[in-house]
């Protein structure tokens, strides 16, 4: 009978007890319909037969073949040394009954949760398409609200080694869609995710090391490709490339969970767009204008890039390049803080963000913000072009921004506008902007940059922004080096917080 909790490869039982073992040649294939009598009508519960097929293939280092059809299942548990292959038209349909997941995962918690397809303490395992796995997350049993209830994920690996997920579609999760926790050696390629079924519908959540993510298409309500460090390991050596991320929340995200931290993380050649639907957040509704300060039309993305170190961990060595984004509230958001009773201050350092082209739809500027005693260090923003809607007022420009040291990090955490329309930088060291251009499509009285308590700030390659509008920086406390682009020399004013001009190319240029 079906195991009631996850087991590893050493607890599969005796081969003679499995009715399908003799049908599987070593290293071969087992067709669950032709050889195991599994029904593919989508009505019959085929969980136990499917689990026996998985166990048999693990014993023979073989492949489970799931042909075209609809298969109704409760949770199934993957094993070592096997492949689950979902052929074209194959659909694994998850139980709509929450008790089925509670029975299968009696010790599930908030992080290691239940899931429809689950693997723990296993190695050399593959899930490949082109079929799909459907969590059917809209079921009434799964409606608990935002960040509430013991809802299952579609796919969940815990403490596994050498995992491959390729060319499969994952959809309609009741919670996060795919979560890789404490794993080492993960390859995710050509995966399609569509999850707008419930709150907290993240796309990919990575809390592992040595991970490659490539050629994926993600369309989800919550965070797109998100790194989390909830357990005692660094999330490190992770590469994400050539992915399309559509979300109502944050597309590229590190954090919020960061108790240990992140090292050597790379995102490159990705496209960020608004999600195809917005069933929960509804930024565009009139009562949500505090999110962004501007009336929106349809779905939009909160942040294109969100790097957050707020739980006492270390974020060190992140490179993000060649990113195209549109319909985002904020292009770039870096936040260091101290939350949840962290014993020590978080760290955020050595970040390079380059070759970015973004179109924003809100007054919430990009920001790089630490806290008193917590300084963001060594950030390079290079070859970035951001188109913004304008709309900033004198009140926005003069706004006093609270520290909010222990607040949940989000680009709109300080309100619907910041005192700059381009970048707001506070409590930072060695922050350099090189060839950064802002395009305003509407009037905005705010300065291009605000620097507050920034040492070693530098701006090079300043180019004209708007005809007739001077380039303006508000600056207090620290040091700032400005090197305008000689070929596109324009008027540059640096003013202190009281409005007094402390440098001007009108006088010194």
From TrEMBL:
Pfam families: Glyco_hydro_28. GO terms for molecular function: polygalacturonase activity. The keyword Hydrolase applies. Keywords: Glycosidase, Hydrolase. GO terms for biological process: carbohydrate metabolic process. InterPro entries: GH28_Enzymes, Glyco_hydro_28, PbH1, Pectin_lyas_fold, Pectin_lyase_fold/virulence. It comes from the Bacteria. SUPFAM superfamilies: Pectin lyase-like. Belongs to the glycosyl hydrolase 28 family. This is Por secretion system protein.
């Amino acid at each position: 009978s079906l195991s009631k909790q996850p087991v590893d490869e050493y607890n599969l039982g005796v081969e003679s007890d499995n009715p399908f073992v003799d049908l599987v040649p070593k290293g071969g294939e087992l067709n669950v319909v032709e050889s195991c009598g599994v029904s593919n009508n989508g009505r019959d519960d085929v969980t136990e037969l499917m689990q026996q097929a998985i166990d048999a293939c693990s014993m023979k280092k073989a492949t489970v073949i799931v042909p075209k059809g609809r298969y109704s299942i409760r949770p199934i548990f993957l094993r070592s040394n096997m492949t689950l292959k979902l052929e074209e038209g194959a659909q694994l349909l998850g139980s709509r009954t929450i008790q089925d997941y509670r029975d299968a995962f009696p010790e599930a918690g908030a992080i290691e949760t239940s899931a429809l397809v689950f693997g723990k303490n296993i190695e050399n395992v593959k899930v490949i398409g082109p079929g799909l796995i459907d969590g059917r997350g809209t079921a009434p049993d799964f409606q608990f609200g935002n960040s509430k209830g013991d809802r299952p994920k579609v796919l969940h690996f815990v403490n596994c080694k050498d995992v491959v997920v390729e060319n499969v579609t994952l959809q309609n999760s009741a919670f996060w869609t795919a979560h890789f926790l404490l794993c080492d050696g993960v390859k995710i390629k050509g995966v399609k995710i569509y999850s707008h079924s419930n709150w907290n519908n993240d796309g990919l959540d990575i809390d592992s090391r040595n991970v490659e993510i490539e050629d994926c298409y993600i369309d989800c309500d919550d965070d797109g490709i998100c790194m989390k460090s909830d357990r005692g390991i660094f999330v490190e050596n992770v590469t994400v490339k050539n992915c399309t991320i559509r979300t109502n929340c944050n597309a590229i995200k590190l954090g919020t969970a960061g108790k240990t931290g992140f090292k050597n993380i790379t995102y490159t050649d990705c496209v960020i767009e608004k999600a195809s639907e917005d069933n929960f957040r509804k930024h565009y509704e009139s009562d949500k204008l505090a999110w962004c300060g501007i009336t929106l039309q349809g779905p939009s993305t909160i942040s294109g890039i969100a790097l957050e170190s707020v739980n006492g961990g270390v974020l060190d060595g992140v490179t993000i390049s060649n990113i195209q984004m549109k319909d985002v509230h904020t292009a770039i958001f870096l936040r260091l803080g101290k939350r949840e009773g962290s014993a020590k201050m978080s760290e955020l350092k050595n970040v390079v963000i380059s070759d970015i082209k973004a179109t924003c739809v809100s007054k919430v500027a990009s920001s790089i913000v630490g806290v008193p005693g917590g300084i963001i260090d060594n950030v390079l923003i290079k070859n970035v072009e951001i188109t913004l809607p304008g709309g900033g007022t004198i009140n926005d420009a003069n706004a006093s921004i609270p520290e909010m040291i222990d607040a949940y990090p989000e680009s709109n955490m300080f309100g619907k506008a910041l005192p700059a329309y381009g970048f707001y930088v506070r409590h930072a060291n060695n922050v350099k902007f090189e060839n950064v251009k802002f395009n305003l499509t509407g009037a905005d009285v705010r300065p291009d940059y605000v620097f507050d308590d920034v040492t070693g700030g530098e701006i090079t390659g300043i180019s004209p922004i708007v005809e007739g509008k001077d380039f303006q920086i508000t600056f207090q406390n620290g040091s700032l080096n400005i090197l305008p682009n000689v070929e596109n020399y324009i008027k540059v004013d640096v003013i202190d917080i009281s409005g007094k001009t402390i440098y001007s190319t009108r006088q010194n240029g």
